Amino acid sequence: MTDRTLPLPSALSLAGKRVVVTGAASGIGRATASAAAQLGATLLLTDRAPLGEVKAEAEALGAAVDTLQGDLTAEGFAQRLIERGPVDGLAHCAGILFREPLLESDKVRERFMQTMDVNVLVPITLGSAMIEHMAARGGGKIVMIGSVAGRTGGTALTTPLDYAASKGAVHVVIRWLSRGAIGKGVHVNGIAPGPIQTPMTGGNTADPKSLPSGRRGRPEEMAWMIMMLLSPAASYVSGAVLDCNGGSYVG
Which residue in the list 19, 21, 88, 163 is annotated as catalytic? Predict the structure, then answer.
């Protein structure tokens, strides 16, 4: 048997595509930037945190990389991203998670509204703006990050209520946006990760051995699912929320 070097199938390539990755400084966003670079995409990375390290990583993989550091909840920030365009794909990986139980917070309303602002309103406003931008260019693809908590209400009572509620809402946003976008050539989908080992979930003390797969997921495992939904291979997929949870939820 001889070894073969096979070219990347065009259905999986992002060559010639410009992809925006939010929350790119760490976790799933950082892994997504790396995966997109490996598939040939040009990148625009954004996060509130510094982006120097992830930019260098993607450039080392051969990608052309632009960055825009800032807060997605700031007025006009979505338009600033579009003005850095053009944009062919959006991987919206930014999100917020408070570890303290919601009702134990001394500022319940403020905390709840902050979670909803970042995790729900940003996907609505950013997604809507990107749909119009992509439609004017002839189409595009958007992938958003939900959660197994949005399916189940949380894998345990330790899952914060506001986080679970916000991720359930994200699943609705994905489907709602998809209905209006698909006729414009824009595909809107999402993934629903299970427990993933990222800085944001670092406070999760649940024993990984209690999970069906016996471990937490890795950010790169989520990133490659995002790549599939951004690629031409997903040309007939829209409004889907792909479960990526190692068997934590089967439904």
Answer: 163
Name the DSSP letter for residue 248. S
The answer to whether the CB of 147 falls within 8 A of the CB of 27 is: no
Closest among 224, 225, 197 to 211, alpha carbons compared: 197
pLDDT digits (tens, 9 = 90+) for 201-235: 655 556 666 677 778 889 999 999 999 999 999 99
Total count of residues recorded for the chain: 251
Instruction: List the single range of 59-63, 131-135, 148-152 with lowest mean pLDDT.
Output: 148-152
Q: What percentage of residues in the chain have a pLDDT greater than 70?
A: 93
CA–CA separation, 92 and 174 (whole Å): 11
Give the residues across from 89 on adjacent strands: 19, 141
Residues 6+ away with beta carbon under 8 Å from 25: 45, 47, 48, 49, 50, 51, 53, 54
163 counts as catalytic: yes
Q: How far apart are CA 131 and CA 128, in angstroms?
A: 5
Predicted pLDDT of residue 179? 98
Query: H-type helices in the chain, by residue range?
Result: 27-38, 52-60, 77-83, 108-116, 122-136, 148-152, 161-181, 219-230
